[in-house]
What we know:
The chain has helices at about 1-5, 10-15, 25-30, 35-65, 70-85, 90-100, 105-110. It is an all-alpha fold. The protein has one domain (about 1-100). Helix 2 packs parallel to helix 4 (about 35-65) and helix 4 runs antiparallel to helix 5.
Amino acid sequence: MKGVEQVGWRFVAFVRLVPLFPFNVLNYTLGFTRIKLLHYIIASYICILPAAITYTCLEYAGRETIAGGEGMMQKVLLALSILAVVSFIPRIIARLREGPKLTVEELHTQMQGSNTPLILDARTAEEYVGEERAL
Length: 135
C-alpha cells in the first residue's frame, strides 16, 4: 500500500498501460490508497486512451471485414499495427527511463583519450572488495 502511494500516478499509468489487470477490481483497490484523485483521473485518462483507440479500430476493422466493405485488408492491417504499437508502449517507456549506458569498451576508449571522464565509486567501504588502484 505504501509503495503504491509513494509512486502515485506512475503506478496508475503502469496498470492502465498493461491490460492484464481487470479495471473494476483495480478501481476499487486504488480507492483504498491515498493517491490524489486528480493524479488518478489524469493518469487513467491518458493511459487508457491508446488501448481505447486500438480496440475501437479493431472493432471497426472487424465490422468492415464481416460486411465485406472496400479496403478491408488495409483497415485490418492498420488496426493490427496500432495494437502492436500499443503493446510496446510499456517497454518503450521503460527504455526511455533507463538513460544512457556506457559499455566497458566505450569507457576504455574514453579513458585512453585526452578528455578522460571522472569516475566516482559510490560503494561503501563494506561493499568494496579487492585492492585499490588509481586509474
